[in-house]
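Bumping my old thread because nobody answered last time. Still need a sequence for this structure:
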């Protein structure tokens, strides 16, 4: 994994009531394989996973990938907590989720922009396709 549970806590959580035991490995894997891979492009993501200690990737990993993953995982876990509990979320819970999601989305955009601008040899630009009037990235 590209981020430890402790790094997630240190980056995205203020509360001391949330512990590493509350962080699901499945949430980390989902955030990495689905969202980080998409933001970075599959070839760059795969190379980073295979070679995380490469000096070329130090800033990418510490300043962009890990902060994004921390908030993406927090967003996934909070979503599961409030929407999959079987009860109707309160307005406050919905607002908190929206704020967490916006932070994760902004970190996603920063990660994507950084990868695009740094000229990593493994990075590939997403293909943009307009289908039935909708912009789709592949």
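Sorry it took so long. Here it is:
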């Amino acid at each position: 994994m590209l981020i430890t549970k402790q790094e997630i806590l240190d980056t995205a959580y203020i509360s001391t009531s949330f512990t590493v035991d509350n962080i699901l490995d499945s949430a980390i894997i989902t955030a990495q394989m689905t969202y980080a891979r998409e933001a970075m492009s599959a070839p760059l993501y795969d190379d980073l996973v295979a070679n995380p200690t490469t000096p070329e990737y130090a800033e990418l990993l510490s300043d962009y990938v890990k902060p994004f993953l921390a908030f993406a995982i927090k967003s996934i876990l909070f979503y599961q907590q409030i929407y999959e509990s079987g009860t109707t979320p309160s307005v406050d819970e919905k607002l908190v989720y929206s704020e967490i999601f916006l932070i994760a989305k902004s970190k996603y955009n920063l990660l994507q922009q950084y990868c695009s601008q740094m000229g990593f040899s493994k990075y590939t630009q997403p293909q943009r396709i307009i289908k039935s009037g909708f912009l789709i990235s592949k």
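The first helix runs from residue 5 to 12. Let me know if any region looks off to you.
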